[in-house]
Amino acid sequence: MKYPLHTVSRPVSGSEVQKLAHALKSGGYVANEAALDLAKRLAARRHRRKAANAAK
């Protein structure tokens, strides 16, 4: 996905996702609310995918 030059948003790489997910699962420190929201969305997406695949 490409982003316009005037935005601050950047794609999240695999290692960053793992760090955020680990901090969320372990109850550790996450840098800010946006990062926490991102980790929750990613975890919910993975959970939904696993549930959908298990139903098949």
What does this 3D model show about the protein?
The chain is mostly helical and 56 residues long. Helix content is 64%, strand content 0%. Helix 1 crosses helix 2. The protein is globular. It starts with 13 loop residues before the first helix and ends with a helix.
Brief sketch in words of this structure:
The chain is an all-alpha fold. The chain is 64% helix and 0% strand. It is globular.
- Please bin the fraction of helical residues: 55-70%
**Radius of gyration in whole Å, from Cα?**
14 Å
Question: How many strand segments?
Answer: 0
Beta-strand share of residues = under 5%
For the biggest sheet, the summary is: none
- Report the structural category: mainly alpha
List the total number of helices: 2
Distance between the termini: 30 Å
Elements, N to C (H/E): HH
Unreliable parts: none
Average per-residue pLDDT, rounded, comes to 80
Shape: globular
Please render the helix and strand layout as text:
Layout: H1 14-26, H2 33-55
Helix pairs in contact: 1-2
Keywords:
mainly alpha, 56 residues, 2 helices
